[in-house]
Amino acid sequence: MSVITVGLLGFGTVGKGVYETIINHQERLQAILGKEVKVAAILVKNIEKHDFPDKDVLLTDDFQKIIELPKLDVVIDAIVGKEPGYTYLRHAVKRGCHVITANKEMFAHHGSELKSLAKKHNVSLGFEATVGGGIPIIQTLKKLLNANQVERIEGILNGTSNFILTSMREEKLSFESALKIAQEKGYAEADPENDIEGYDAFYKAVVLSELIYGKAPVWEKSTRIGITDITPEQISIASSLGLRFKHVASLERDQKGVRCTVKPVLVGESHPLYRVEGVQNAVSIDADIVGNISLQGPGAGMFPTASAIVEDLIHLETNDFPEIFAEGEGEGIEAALPVWAMIGNLSNLELPNGFEVISYSSDNAVIVKSSEDAAASVAKDDLIAYQILGNHHFSDVRTDQVQPV
Ligand SMILES: NC(=O)c1ccc[n+]([C@@H]2O[C@H](COP(=O)([O-])OP(=O)(O)OC[C@H]3O[C@@H](n4cnc5c(N)ncnc54)[C@H](OP(=O)(O)O)[C@@H]3O)[C@@H](O)[C@H]2O)c1
């Protein structure tokens, strides 16, 4: 039986998951591919800390030794950071290897260059694991929604921030206490900035944008707000309105182009992301023919991520991975005026023209419809404007509170 020779870059959580999956699912892989899949070499950074039992596999801290192997079909990138991953994958593509990556930071910055290079060298590029861990969002968008125009995507793309928000609401914890638990459980890094400030979700949104619209959102014009300012009091007010906080990455194409937003928002029971809790991820897609589709599942972890990588491996090798990158066409949809919950101190609130008051549902919150700029203009340190996604019905309308001037 012929062999698919794999070079695996990285032997941490993801790399180990890929290696074990290839060993433990060898029979199934052979049945599908008609070939043996063999990891020939593994790249690590600190070789002294690894004690690798299989002496048939080259364990090295020198990428050159891998790229110069006499036979190398696929290079899998499971290391961290923009570099050296980008440089290594460029070498691999130029050598004629298919490449697969889980490295979203690298791919968000260099995905389009790698796609062009892969096309030029007639090799395939798998990046399912860069977004949503084990959720097959990339292949769904690439292969199964081609006639559809994707109008909007809203996703919970970071399990750590979702776990923190769920714990704060369910256990009535402060942000700091919920973060500590996330760290103790291994969901959050010692330095959690990437997750809680929304960088990780933003990288994933960039990957999705390039896939759907053929271009990245303009970095400077995009919004990225973390979850660190959310308080248990705000969560409790939101709950009294039937709303839950979620840290959502949104992509929408309006007349001004592709807009990417990562920020804390509020969703009601009818929204597809309302029941996505803990470390789960989910992606809600609105497309013009099919309507709304939601995919939910484990957004990270050893085997969910290995699942995405090994599925990519199968599609590369069966040559069933069409390189269709949808170009952004048309004018896009006209953006509707957003709805906001202004939560906090309502005393002295004066709403200028341009606000439509929907409800004064509680003493600490007013629900309004206005442009983003108008909502920002009345927000203060003790009165924060959170966007409400979807159609939420407010039944408890009161008129005994502040009125617009
Ligand atoms: N963890 C997840 O659930 C998950 C999910 C989706 C995507 N990803 C992405 O997958 C990648 C790997 O994540 P991970 O969680 O497996 O990370 P990890 O546990 O920290 O492992 C990283 C591995 O890469 C190696 N490495 C790091 N820098 C290197 C360098 N400059 N040269 C050679 N080897 C290097 C490390 O070597 P040493 O072991 O010698 O230090 C380690 O084996 C990241 O890009 C991450 O964003 C992770």
Structure notes:
This protein is of the alpha/beta class and 405 residues long. It is built from 13 helices and 16 strands. α5 runs parallel beside α10 (199-213). It folds into three domains: 3-126, Rossmann fold (3-Layer(aba) Sandwich); 137-298, Dihydrodipicolinate Reductase, domain 2 (2-Layer Sandwich), CATH 3.30.360; 339-389. It has helices spanning 13-24, 26-33, 63-67, 85-94, 104-120, 137-144, 159-171, 175-184, 193-196, 199-213, 232-240, 302-317, 372-378, and strands at 3-9, 36-43, 58-60, 74-77, 98-101, 125-126, 150-156, 223-224, 243-254, 257-268, 280-287, 291-298, 339-344, 356-362, 365-369, 383-389. β5 (98-101), α5 and β6 (125-126) form a beta-alpha-beta unit. Strands 7, 8, 9, 10, 11, 12, 13, 14, 15 and 16 form a ten-stranded mixed β-sheet that branches. It is elongated. The structure holds NADP nicotinamide-adenine-dinucleotide phosphate.
CATH topology title of the largest domain = Dihydrodipicolinate Reductase, domain 2
Tell me the total number of β-strands: 16
CATH superfamily of the largest domain: Dihydrodipicolinate Reductase, domain 2
Main sheet record: 10 strands, mixed
Assembly state of the chains shown: single chain
Gross morphology is elongated
Poorly predicted residue ranges = 319-330, 401-405
Helical coverage, percent range? 25-40%
Q: What portion of the residues fall into strands of 2 or more residues? A: 25-35%
- What's the architecture of the largest domain, going by CATH? 2-Layer Sandwich
Count of individual helical segments: 13
Which secondary-structure class do the elements indicate?
alpha/beta
Distance between the termini: 79 Å
Kindly state the mean pLDDT as a whole number?
91
H/E series: EHHEEHEHEHEHEHHHHEHEEEEHEEEHE
Number of domains: 3
The small-molecule ligands in this entry are: NADP nicotinamide-adenine-dinucleotide phosphate
